């Protein structure tokens, strides 16, 4: 029952009955929500509040936290490794995410043509998304892009002797980006579902008017798919900023070679558990939350110019 | 996708919520309980160590029917994360295997029990004084060293033979002999095999290098005292090997970071010589059964200080200050270090045991590889110098920092001198911050 309906009910004989049924509904709702709410409070909100407090302390895990005001924030300003980890993370998000989404969209459009055996291709292409963030694949990646790895064996066919891609500071981040692009399956499946929602008549009508495939893609597919693109973009940005496993495994937990794969979350982890600076790490965690929040807000703000809701 | 972040922040915060749990228990009136108790024993290591340790636990339980020992084990990298979080939540294992990197960090923060309060149950008198002292922080015994190992050079003689290069006289070799031999291997094999492997990223070789030049990393008060030029010369050595072709390339070196020993360049026959803790000889020998593997003391120069070698404690046993059963914990450690049957079960898996009685107990039925390790350690022990100060509180991440700066030097981002200076500054500021 809407708020307006409730106001109306107040003035009529339905009042008592309405409140009774509302209370019952509310109780049932609370009952069904409880498992989620308790989880949210205990596992998310509570710890977040605690970490907000820790962000203003010097805490080494073994002794009680000591309140130090804004010292952690001051320290961030002159922290060179923080700056370099932000550089790495932003490069990763800005380069690998657009490529991943472009690949996902391109394949979704191809698959949407109604290929024979679509179900098979869809599953096969989705597979990397299931595996991509696993430890096993990250370990495999190290082997594929190592000096003696599969990738160099492939280059060897053309007589090219490749370097060790994971071990050079110039290319290590690239291999992790490639791993991320490779997990294009998840956004692809969402794009496919979105493409199915676009009425076929639009294509038929435009074809009659003489529009080519590219023109159709630009003027029909893209605008009608823009809410889906937006959705994938927001999810992708949030996920990529927090990326941890791949960098951790590929670099053996160091962020190396020479900090070239020191992702923000990896740096946060090192500060917390290798250097016992949990207070500073908590402050970093909040910085990450602010960055992700701001990025998301900016995307929502820009969406009114490019996301087209067909209403 | 969000789950990872939740898990991260949850871990941070769970640690925070319950973070105030560390309180040293009263040390008066420690006695064995009349009731059955359960204590936890926590260690890192490979499968073979797990099997051996479980066997020792079974033996202990059969002699102490009232004590149940619960085993916890993991690999090295996850071990310290978990110990930190369980300690923060007041749920630390009663007895934990320890490394000297972390000993002072935990002891100075009140997380470990003063073991002299357990002297009734835990007898450490069999350990040589020099070794026992390596478990002390500021004069208090917080951990019992299990054994010690010197650093040595592993030599794959089969590779030397294959390429017709003569192995230098290992008793008298100089750094020049070493460099020449390494370069010959690389040349004779056309770069297929390199003369020498990783050197520059671990604090053990850095310490031995420093001691060869009359320096120490830290002093007794826990400050960095090494001259940056010595660290620079140590890294310059690695760069020289790369330039001359004697050593693995920068990329090959960086590729080895975090790779298990069995897959490292030594074990896979990619290098002819490699620096290694003596205790790792057995693991290598097992990983390369078709090669003849030698181990020797470091090369020296005429200017090299005597007594540069020392026995680095391979690991320790320590008791959490939050334990509810200190007496039982003490009895367990006593059993692990003093019982000869345990010594035979462990062999040299945790390094050559520091307890002479245990060394004797295992001497008879040693495998050839264990025999070599034992002999090497014994021969070095005759000419070791004073033990260096242990890694101070606030510097337990020295190896991560060291390998980070070493990589920057390797890839030419910093000169060895710049790298050395920044590396030592960062260590010192970590120590200052922990005070």
UniProtKB/TrEMBL annotation, chain A:
CDD domains assigned: TM_PBP2
GO BP annotations listed: transmembrane transport
Topological type in the membrane: Multi-pass membrane protein
Domain of life: Bacteria
Keywords: Cell membrane, Membrane, Transmembrane, Transmembrane helix, Transport
UniProt-listed SUPFAM superfamilies: MalF N-terminal region-like, MetI-like
InterPro entries xref list: ABC_transporter_permease, MetI-like, MetI-like_sf
Domain ABC transmembrane type-1: 86-299
GO cellular component: plasma membrane
UniProt KW Cytoplasm keyword: no
Main location: membrane
Subcellular location: Cell membrane
Regions crossing the membrane: 33-56, 90-111, 123-144, 172-195, 222-241, 247-269, 281-301
Family: Belongs to the binding-protein-dependent transport system permease family.
Protein name: Sugar ABC transporter permease
Organism annotation: Phytoactinopolyspora halotolerans
Taxon lineage: Bacteria, Bacillati, Actinomycetota, Actinomycetes, Jiangellales
């Amino acid at each position: 029952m809407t708020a307006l309906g409730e106001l109306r009910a107040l003035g009529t004989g339905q009042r008592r009955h309405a409140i009774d049924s509302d209370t019952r509904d509310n109780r049932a709702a609370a009952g069904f929500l409880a498992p989620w709410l308790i989880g949210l409070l205990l596992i998310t909100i509570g710890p977040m509040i605690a970490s907000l407090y820790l962000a203003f302390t010097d805490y080494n895990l073994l002794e009680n936290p000591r309140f130090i005001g804004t010292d952690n924030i001051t320290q961030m300003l002159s922290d060179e490794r923080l700056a370099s980890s932000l550089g790495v993370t932003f490069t990763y998000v800005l380069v690998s995410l657009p490529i991943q989404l472009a690949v996902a969209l391109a394949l979704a459009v191809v698959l949407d043509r109604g290929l024979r055996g679509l179900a098979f291709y869809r599953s096969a292409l989705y597979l990397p998304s299931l595996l991509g963030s696993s430890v096993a694949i990250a370990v495999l990646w190290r082997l594929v892009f190592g000096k003696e790895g599969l990738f160099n064996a492939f280059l060897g066919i053309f007589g090219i002797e490749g370097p060790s891609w994971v071990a050079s500071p110039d290319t290590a981040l690239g291999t992790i980006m490639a791993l991320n692009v490779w997990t294009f399956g998840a956004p692809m499946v969402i794009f496919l579902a979105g493409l199915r929602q676009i009425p076929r008549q639009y294509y038929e009508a435009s074809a009659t008017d003489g529009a080519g495939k590219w023109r159709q893609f630009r003027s029909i597919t893209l605008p009608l798919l823009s809410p889906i693109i937006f959705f994938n973009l927001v999810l992708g940005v949030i996920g990529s900023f927090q990326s941890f496993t791949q960098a951790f495994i590929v670099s053996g937990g160091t962020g190396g070679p020479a900090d070239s794969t020191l992702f923000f979350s990896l740096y946060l982890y090192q500060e917390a558990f290798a250097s016992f600076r949990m207070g500073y790490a908590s402050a970093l965690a909040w910085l990450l939350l602010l960055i992700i929040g701001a990025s998301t807000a900016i995307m929502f703000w820009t969406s009114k110019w490019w996301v087209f809701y067909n209403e | 996708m969000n789950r990872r972040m939740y898990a991260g922040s949850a871990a941070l915060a769970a640690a925070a919520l319950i973070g105030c749990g560390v309180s040293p228990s009263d040390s008066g009136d420690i006695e064995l309980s009349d009731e059955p108790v359960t204590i936890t024993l926590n260690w890192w290591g490979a499968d073979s160590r797990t099997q051996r340790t479980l066997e020792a636990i079974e033996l202990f339980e059969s002699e102490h029917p009232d004590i149940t020992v619960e085993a916890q084990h993991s690999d090295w990298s996850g071990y310290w994360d978990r110990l930190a979080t369980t300690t923060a939540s007041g749920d630390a294992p009663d007895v934990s295997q320890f490394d000297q990197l972390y000993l002072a960090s935990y002891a100075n923060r009140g997380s470990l029990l003063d073991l002299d309060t357990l002297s009734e149950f835990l007898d450490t008198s069999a350990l040589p004084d020099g070794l026992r002292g390596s478990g002390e922080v500021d004069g208090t015994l917080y951990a019992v060293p299990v054994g010690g190992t010197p650093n040595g050079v592993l030599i794959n003689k089969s590779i030397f033979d294959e390429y017709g290069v003569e192995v230098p006289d290992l008793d008298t070799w100089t750094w020049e002999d070493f460099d020449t031999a390494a370069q010959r291997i690389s040349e004779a094999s056309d770069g297929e095999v390199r003369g020498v492997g990783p050197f520059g990223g671990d604090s053990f070789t850095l310490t031995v290098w420093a001691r060869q030049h009359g320096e120490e990393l830290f002093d007794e008060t826990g400050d960095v005292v090494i001259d940056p030029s010595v660290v620079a010369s140590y890294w310059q050595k690695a760069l020289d090997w790369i330039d001359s072709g004697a050593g693995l390339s920068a990329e090959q070196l960086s590729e080895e970071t975090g790779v298990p020993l069995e897959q490292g360049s030594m074990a896979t026959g990619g290098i002819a010589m490699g620096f290694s803790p003596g205790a790792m000889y057995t693991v290598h020998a097992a990983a390369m059964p078709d090669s003849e593997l030698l181990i020797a003391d470091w090369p020296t120069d005429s200017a090299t200080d005597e007594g540069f070698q020392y026995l680095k404690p391979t690991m320790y046993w320590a008791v959490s200050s939050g334990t509810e059963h200190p007496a039982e914990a003490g009895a367990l450690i006593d059993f692990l270090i003093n019982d000869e049957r345990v010594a035979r079960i462990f062999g040299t898996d945790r390094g050559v045991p520091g307890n002479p009685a245990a060394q004797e107990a295992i001497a008879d039925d040693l495998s050839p590889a264990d025999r070599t390790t034992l002999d090497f350690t014994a021969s070095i022990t005759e000419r070791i110098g004073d033990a260096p100060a242990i890694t101070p509180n606030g510097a337990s991440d020295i190896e991560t920092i060291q390998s980070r700066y070493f990589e920057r030097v390797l890839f030419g981002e910093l000169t060895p001198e710049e790298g050395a200076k920044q590396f030592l500054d960062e260590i010192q500021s970590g120590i200052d911050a922990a005070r």
